[in-house]
UniProtKB/TrEMBL annotation:
The keyword Iron applies. One of its GO terms (molecular function) is metal ion binding. This is Fe2OG dioxygenase domain-containing protein. Belongs to the iron/ascorbate-dependent oxidoreductase family. InterPro entries: DIOX_N (IPR026992), IPNS-like_FE2OG_OXY (IPR044861), IPNS-like_sf (IPR027443), Oxoglu/Fe-dep_dioxygenase_dom (IPR005123). Residues 174-276 form the Fe2OG dioxygenase domain. Gene3D superfamilies: B-lactam Antibiotic, Isopenicillin N Synthase, Chain. PANTHER family: 2-OXOGLUTARATE (2OG) AND FE(II)-DEPENDENT OXYGENASE SUPERFAMILY PROTEIN, OXIDOREDUCTASE, 2OG-FE II OXYGENASE FAMILY PROTEIN. Keywords: Iron, Metal-binding, Oxidoreductase. The keyword Iron applies.
Amino acid sequence: MPATLSLPIIDLSSPDHLSNAVSIRQACIECGFFYIVNHGVEKDSVKAFDECRRFFSLPLEEKMKLERKEHRGYTPLDPDLGSKGDSKQSFYIGSLEDSTNANLNQWPSEEQFGFHLRYVFCEDPSELLRNWRPSMESLYWKLFDVGKKLFSLIALSLNVDEDFFEKIGAINKPGAFLRLLYYPGEMGSHEEVCSAHSDFGALTLLITDGVPGLQICRDKLKEPRVWDDVGHIEGAFIVNIGDLMERWTNCLYQSTLHRVKGTGKERYSMALFLDPHPDCVVECIESCCSESSPPSLYLAQIKQNTVSFFGNRSQKLR
Ligand SMILES: O=C(O)CCC(=O)C(=O)O
Ligand SMILES: [Fe+2]
């Protein structure tokens, strides 16, 4: 039986930024995961989950009207994971930085979701997906603001100025993706419904609906892998470090392998993946290297094939 981890809980409303930074440092060194509370995004996340339930319960042919293009929109199965694929459906919303980016997103429109649908699938037809876009945009911006706060706490935790990430142009403009996930609940506890991976970006904010299944493997180089459950705390979000932050910190902070096991129950989750702006140069943060600990070439992880290396993004690296 996997143990349930006791991860640090960071209170974002606390004025004591230093003690938050100390807890974040410890969490990121030990396991790359922690919780945040008092983030101010409770209502928006409840609304967005309602929208997700409404969208994902539509028939497949209707959801496919918003099929993923330019990395945005609906995916019935994860095509990146081979022929079998994970037992999950997803919907991506890309950067809302400006209208060019925002318009690449796929938003449901009344024309696409014709009259028959509105009357057949919704008790109150005026409700169907009408609130999708405002709910998702609001969630996106609120999560992005939380992300900015976290970046400044992470900067403090690394003994650099609180506005370090802002000064280097990493987070002034959002390069973030919001991923909405639906696990239909057809798989039992022996199945991985989201297979083991580490996130390739800098930081992930994860909101789950309380249905268990998320597990992490704290030592990705150890075989056989040992998995621990990440329990649900009502109202708390889960934060984890991605590969890019691991590299930025010279492997001081861990980008931890995680997965979702089936429970036979439907499960919804939403993740905001925070990446630095593509023009931001990523180089080893000064406080994370020294003569005796020069910038790592990251070979151990590459050899083990556990690092996705930022997917296909074109971040400038040194
Ligand atoms: O659904 C979850 O709880 C985890 C999702 C996840 O790890 C991801 O989308 O990268
Ligand atoms: Fe993930």
